[in-house]
Write a structure and sequence with these properties.
The chain is α/β, with parallel strands linked by helices. Helix content is 44%, strand content 18%. It has 16 helices and 14 strands. It has an 8-stranded mixed sheet with strand order 3-4-2-1-5-6-7-8, sandwiched between helices. The chain is globular, with a radius of gyration of 21 Å. The model has no long low-confidence stretch (mean pLDDT 93).
Length: 405
């Protein structure tokens, strides 16, 4: 079977962003299917293609995947209007492929929501089978964050969401809340499958040379956040906790923020202004380098802004990387991940907007390393028992290819 796979922000493990689509494509290939991956140029992403762009695109095989990369650059630091324009351009170019390429099933994954547009055209103009993967609920999330306030824009996005869901033969949701959100739009349960993000145990649970940023004391507690420094991430909460730790005189707890994003300069300026020397900023690293960092870290930080739409409507890559590395996790917002951490005993779930509770959890971690290590063992057990990427990928492949039957 031939799968035409659309993911605008695709990356191989050589990049510094999530690799769910890479792993799913590789599993499709292992199971005997052909995959054509269509993507753009994403900050932090690496497709593996090195040939020049001709006519706005380049194409070639990488690890068995036939990759088509459009010369459309995207960064989370771009202005909203520029990002929106890039989304639309990618969708328009994708329609052309959906109408001309040879394939059996078209698979598209968000974000952005416009990722579903080629699937709509493929379903209704060519009678192709269409599977749509939903990673975030739009327009609920941007509306809740206040990123989009224009009623016309929100209405148009809501309509596109409805059309995408109802055009798809099957859908995939990455969290329980996303599955429920899809169902609320009138999609029968037998057309929706929950396939959460998974743990890349071959990358993070294997042997890796541990490292820390230069100048750090190996005895200090190191808590790390990996990912975008944007509005959704609410990283001021980390700096609030750092300020509280500074007030308490805890110089043995260090907070590492690794990544890029629109708000990183502002966060760095605040840390400098307030003398928060317990906060370290570091550029992104690829997955192999990240595995070594995790091996030298004590605690993973799962941080998001306190927005109710996030509680059950997200499935963050970083959480699964943490537990695959055997790291306990400190989570600062309610929802399914907080409930899982509490039930499994693999970390700390603290209330949002509470720097004292955040600092208390960090102090508990620093002062009782034996209990912290036990939480890490439970985290790895959770990764292996429920979120093994290989097993989840088999479920994914069965669901996607089953759409053609």
């Amino acid at each position: 079977m031939r799968i035409l796979y659309f993911h605008q922000h695709f990356s191989t493990p050589q990049g510094t962003t999530g690799i769910r689509s890479y792993e799913m494509a590789r599993r499709l290939i292992t199971r005997g299917h052909d995959v054509v991956m269509v993507c753009g140029r994403y900050q932090g992403g690496e497709t593996g293609l090195t040939s020049p762009f001709i006519g706005g695109r380049r194409r070639g095989p990488v690890d068995g995947i036939d990759i088509i990369e459009f010369d459309l650059a995207y960064s989370n630091s771009d202005r909203f209007t520029k990002r929106a324009a890039t989304f639309v351009k990618f969708a328009l170019k994708s329609i052309g492929l959906a109408l001309t390429e040879r394939y059996d099933v078209l698979f598209a994954t968000t974000t952005p929501l416009t990722a579903g547009i080629p699937g709509i055209f493929a379903r209704w103009l060519r009678g192709k089978r269409f599977v749509f993967e939903v990673r975030d609920l739009w327009p609920e999330l941007p509306k809740a964050m206040g990123v989009i306030r224009n009623r016309f824009a929100l209405g148009a996005m809501s309509l596109l969401e409805w059309i995408s869901y109802h055009s798809a033969n099957r859908l995939v949701g990455l969290s329980p809340g996303i599955v429920k959100g899809i169902a609320r739009r009138g999609i029968p349960g037998n057309r929706i499958s929950l396939v959460p993000n998974g743990c890349d145990l071959d990358i993070f649970a294997g042997p890796a040379a541990p490292w820390r940023p230069e100048g750090m004391n190996e005895k200090d507690l190191l808590a790390v956040f990996t990912g975008t420094h944007g509005m959704a991430n609410g990283l001021d909460a980390v700096l609030d906790a750092a300020a509280e730790l500074k007030r308490r005189g805890r110089k043995d707890i260090r907070l590492l923020l690794i990544g890029e994003g629109k708000l990183k300069p502002a966060l760095q300026a605040r840390a400098e202004r307030e003398g928060l020397h317990n906060v370290i900023f570091h550029p992104p690293v690829n997955k192999a380098r990240l595995a070594g960092l995790m091996a030298g870290t004590d605690l993973g930080l799962q941080i998001l802004a306190n927005i109710p739409a996030f509680y059950y409507g997200t499935s963050p890559n970083k959480f699964f990387d943490y537990i695959a590395s055997g790291l306990p996790v400190l989570n600062n917002y309610p929802g399914w991940l907080a409930e899982m951490i509490t039930k499994a005993g693999c970390g700390f779930a603290v209330p949002p907007n509470d720097p004292e509770a955040f600092a208390n959890a960090l102090e508990l971690a620093a002062d009782d390393r034996n209990t912290l290590k036990e939480k890490g063992r439970r985290a790895l057990a959770l990764a292996k028992s429920k979120f093994n990427r290989t097993e989840l990928a088999d479920t994914f492949v069965d669901w996607v290819t089953g759409a053609a039957q």
